[in-house]
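--- STAGE predict ---
source: upstream dedup step, 1 unique chain passed
mode: sequence only
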Amino acid sequence: MIDNLPGLGRDPASVRKRIETMEALLERAFVIPGLNRAVGLDVLLDIIPVAGSAIAAALGGWMVWEARNLGMSRWQMARMMGNVGFDFLLGAIPWIGAVPDFFFRSNSRNLKIIRKHLDRHHPATATIDR
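--- STAGE serialize ---
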């Protein structure tokens, strides 16, 4: 039954949709007025010392786990976990941990790796970006 709902299946197209949605939520949920800079939950969570970075890393780790189900290589998985780990370490810096998230977007980097894999190995999942 769950496999029949859009975006909840295990097929590559559903996985792609879930990962793209999570990346948008974590990195581009809203725009800061005056700066015209898109930010997401990742930046907001980093305001909470340690726990916020841990939650953001867990959500980024979920994206990597979803990517694992697509049959990505160990090298790709290691790069993505490295991105999440580096983002976690930057976010764990007291008082200024949210600032690096404006510039280092681990989830966007991971989405780029996942899209490249999907476009190469599952071309039917490709979407046209506007």
